[in-house]
Every structure is written in structure tokens, then in C-alpha cells.
Design goal:
This protein is mostly beta strands. The chain has a domain at 288-425: Jelly Rolls, CATH 2.60.120. Helices cover 3% and strands 35% of the residues. The chain is built from two helices and 29 strands. The protein has helices at residues 382-390, 416-420, and strands at 2-4, 17-19, 25-28, 49-54, 67-72, 83-85, 105-107, 123-128, 138-145, 152-156, 160-167, 170-174, 177-181, 185-189, 195-199, 204-211, 235-238, 246-255, 258-266, 271-276, 281-284, 305-309, 319-324, 327-329, 346-354, 369-372, 396-398, 401-408, 413-414. Strand 12 and strand 13 (177-181) form a beta hairpin. The chain is globular. The N and C termini lie far apart (70 Å).
């Protein structure tokens, strides 16, 4: 698929996108910028430089090989010397911190700071697992921002970024083009891709999963078949849209768990054309085709998986990104909320808007989060249990809800910040204490 984009003009509303998941795209902002029939001509047109971005090893199997060729005004090596800067509240696994206790955790939303804070400075790590240097595991962050990254750019060498807005729309200016992102949608920025974040509202808050492991992909559908869940055609990738700007800029890089910055005299988003199958993309969660039971019981939460990063154990993910969207419940003689559970997988949940049906007693609010680690029991609170056990089982539609889960095979360890935060609900476990013995005895 090939298309022509153009130079991006600030305030432009009608952005263009290419559709499909991990397709072989070809796009140019200026006609004639993209070489035909070759990747690295001796003298590229328009005086551009050829640069390859490899998201996987050169020798990865074809189906697992992700790379793109970029044709840019100046190569990425044209930048100042990096200096280490303060990490703030950003942490990377493995980290030395308090012992993770075998308990349930839940946090109220973090507030956006009063002092000027952009997307980079507003990243707060809540939890992590694995080892970024070994490309295993994830980091779980919250972002809090009240200003745009006008003269700053960022890229992450440790992992790809799954961005989940909760409040306030964003515009992501990337090397590959421009993505608009509102609450109810997500974006994925591949490892190593430079971008800046512009706020389209006064403030913004959301979640970020930093995936150290295998690239996110669509899950296998198995017996579901060829369609359903997140369909490939609904993923959108930007067309080429270069920035031709000179001036005094700062390029921030996350590398080996630490933050570095370098001075740069031009915008690094100067890619005039590109082709390949490695690029940022966005997805509207309302397009997810939810699958469920139409008889009794309900399938396990894997039916809600949007994207997955596999591990070396088949079917047991490094990270699954799972959503709980509006949907019909029609099962007969069935306890319809999520069942009580002890799980080998660890589950970090967030709420984008509305209510979550398994937590009817309050306390789990938009912008908040919870963590139930491996083999830590969890399930509906007392209020949800009481209502669901007595309600007449007519067809029911869950509306005004969008919760999500980062689910991982590895223990998710809260940071010291998360464990000591005043937003940690010390009384979370109380929501189950009213679940009294109901067995009548012999």
C-alpha cells in the first residue's frame, strides 16, 4: 500500500492514516522521495539519507521480522553528546525495592501536577517485572501532563510503548507521521521511534505499558476463526508527514533503565518518506468485536485480548492487553461478573471510564488501578456478589464501561513510590470481608 502524505501543519485536523496491522506500507510526504525498486540507492532523490530501523534481528523468521526504511533530511547520528539526566519517578526492571507482599493492591488516581509537566517529566512508574536488558517483562507507568513537548523529543531503547489515554486527548508527532489519540483509543510506538506529545486539552492522564519483550501482535483466534476480537483493518498507521524545523531542541532517550538527553539543532522527525512493516499505530477500542457465551457460564478473559506479546512458554504471555468493553450478557443460570480466581498470571487493571462490573461497591474509579499478583485471590466485591446472585437473569447490556488489564506471566512488583503513595487504598481488602459463610452445614 502506498500513499502520499505531506508536511504537517500545526492545527491540521484531517489527518490521514493507512489501515491494517503490521502491513507492508509505503508512504511519502513529498512526491518522488521514496526510492522505487531498491532500499538504499547510491544517491537518494531530494538529497535525502537512507536509514534502516530494525525492530527485530536481521535473521528473525520472515513472519516475525519487522523493519522499516526511512528517507530523511539528516541521519539520526547527527545529534549532540548524551548526558545522563534525572529519572524522576521512572523506574525499570529489575529494581531493588521493598519486598512485594502477597496481597491485593488498589490505587486512587494520581493528580496532574500544578507545575509545568510534559509527557516525559510526568511519567510515574507504578510497577514492573522481568529485566529490560534481557528483553523480558514490562514496565507499567502512569503519565500526568499539563503542557506539550514543543521543543523536546523522546525515544525508548528499552521497549515499545503502549499508550492508553484516560483523560485528555493527545497528538503524537512521530518519525513516521502524526497520530491523534483520545481516551477510548490506544497507540503503540515501537522501540526506538522518536516522537513528541502535544496536548489537545489543558491536562492529560493515562497509562503506559512499556513492553521489554517480543513485539505486540494480534492474538491467535483459534476456534473463533478468521474474524472477531480486534480486526486487522481497524488499526491505523500514519502517512509520512515530515517536520522541517531548525533550532535548539532536546532529544531525550531512555536506555538501560536510565534517562539521557542530548542537544540537537533540528527536528528529528524529518522523515520525508518511509516503507516497511514497523511503524507506530493506533486503535479505537470501540471497534473491538467482543465474543461471549450465549448459553451458560462465560469464557475466560482471553476472549477480550486486543494485543499480546508472547513469551518462550506457548500460550503464556509476556504481556496480554485485555479490555472489558460495553457488551451484552445473556448467559442463563450463570454468575455473570468475573468469578473468584487465583491465577498463575499477574493482573494489573486500569479503568478508562465508567464502572467495572465486578467492583460495584465503589473504590475503583477512572484513572485508578489495581494489582492482583500470581496466586493472590481476587474477584467481585461483596456488593457485586450480592447483586449478581439475586438479579433476574434477563438479557443485560453493560454500558458506560471500559476497563483494561495488563496481564503477565511474571510477578508484577510495585515500586516504592506505589507502595508509599497516599493514593494506595489501605482498606481495599475490606471489600471482601462481608462475604460470609453461607454453607448450612450437614
Amino acid at each position: 500500500m502506498q500513499t502520499t502524505g505531506g508536511k504537517y501543519v500545526a492545527g491540521e485536523k484531517n489527518l490521514k492514516y493507512l489501515t491494517g496491522f503490521a502491513n507492508e506500507f509505503a508512504t511519502e510526504a513529498v512526491a518522488g522521495a521514496l526510492p522505487v525498486g531498491r532500499n538504499s540507492p547510491q544517491c537518494p532523490s531530494l538529497g535525502l539519507y537512507c536509514e534502516k530501523l530494525s525492530g527485530t534481528a536481521f535473521t528473525a523468521p520472515s513472519a516475525e521480522n519487522f523493519r522499516s526504511w526511512l528517507y530523511r533530511m539528516q541521519p539520526s547520528v547527527v545529534q549532540g553528546q548524551f548526558r545522563e539526566i534525572d529519572n524522576g519517578f521512572l523506574c525499570t526492571a529489575p529494581f531493588t525495592g521493598p519486598v512485594t507482599p502477597p496481597t491485593q493492591f488498589r490505587w486512587d488516581p494520581l493528580d496532574v501536577p500544578d507545575e509545568p509537566t510534559d509527557f516525559i517529566d510526568g511519567l510515574v512508574t507504578m510497577a514492573a517485572n522481568g529485566d529490560a536488558s534481557m528483553q523480558v517483562g514490562i514496565g507499567i507507568h502512569v503519565y500526568l501532563a499539563n503542557r506539550s513537548m514543543d521543543n523536546r523529543f523522546f525515544y525508548d531503547a528499552d521497549g515499545e510503548l503502549l499508550i492508553v489515554p484516560q483523560d485528555g486527548a493527545l497528538r503524537l508527532h512521530t518519525e513516521f507521521g502524526v497520530l491523534d489519540l483520545a481516551p477510548g483509543s490506544i497507540a503503540v510506538v515501537p522501540r526506538g521511534v522518536k516522537f513528541r506529545v502535544v496536548l489537545l486539552a489543558e491536562t492529560a492522564r493515562g497509562y503506559v505499558c512499556e513492553n521489554y519483550g517480543a513485539k505486540l501482535r494480534l492474538p491467535e483466534r483459534g476456534p473463533i476463526g478468521s474474524d472477531g476480537l480486534a480486526n486487522s483493518r481497524d488499526f491505523e498507521t500514519p502517512v509520512a508527514a515530515c517536520e522541517d524545523r531548525q533550532g535548539a531542541f532536546e532529544l531525550v532517550m531512555k536506555f538501560g533503565g536510565n534517562m539521557f538527553a542530548a542537544e540537537i539543532d533540528h527536528s528529528p522527525l524529518d522523515v520525508v518518506a518511509w516503507h516497511g512493516n514497523l511503524a507506530p499505530y493506533r486503535y479505537d477500542l470501540s471497534r473491538f468485536n467482543t465474543i461471549g457465551s450465549i448459553s451458560f457460564d462465560h469464557p475466560d478473559p482471553s476472549i477480550f485480548t486486543v494485543l499480546t506479546s508472547p513469551s518462550d512458554m506457548a500460550g503464556t504471555a509476556n504481556i496480554d492487553f485485555v479490555i472489558f468493553p460495553p457488551r451484552w450478557l445473556v448467559m442463563e443460570d450463570t454468575f455473570r461478573p468475573a468469578w473468584y480466581h487465583r491465577n498463575v498470571m499477574s493482573e494489573y487493571m486500569g479503568l478508562i471510564h465508567g464502572d467495572y462490573d465486578a467492583k460495584s461497591g465503589g473504590g475503583f474509579v477512572p484513572g485508578g488501578s489495581s494489582l492482583h499478583n500470581s496466586m493472590v485471590p481476587h474477584g467481585p466485591d461483596e456488593t457485586a456478589f450480592t447483586i449478581a446472585s439475586a438479579v433476574e437473569q434477563a438479557p443485560q447490556k453493560l454500558i458506560d464501561t471500559m476497563a483494561f488489564m495488563f496481564e503477565s506471566r511474571y510477578l508484577i512488583e510495585p515500586t516504592r513510590f506505589a507502595l508509599e503513595s497516599p493514593t494506595l487504598q489501605a482498606d481495599y481488602a475490606d471489600c471482601w470481608q462481608g462475604l460470609m459463610r453461607r454453607y448450612p452445614g450437614e
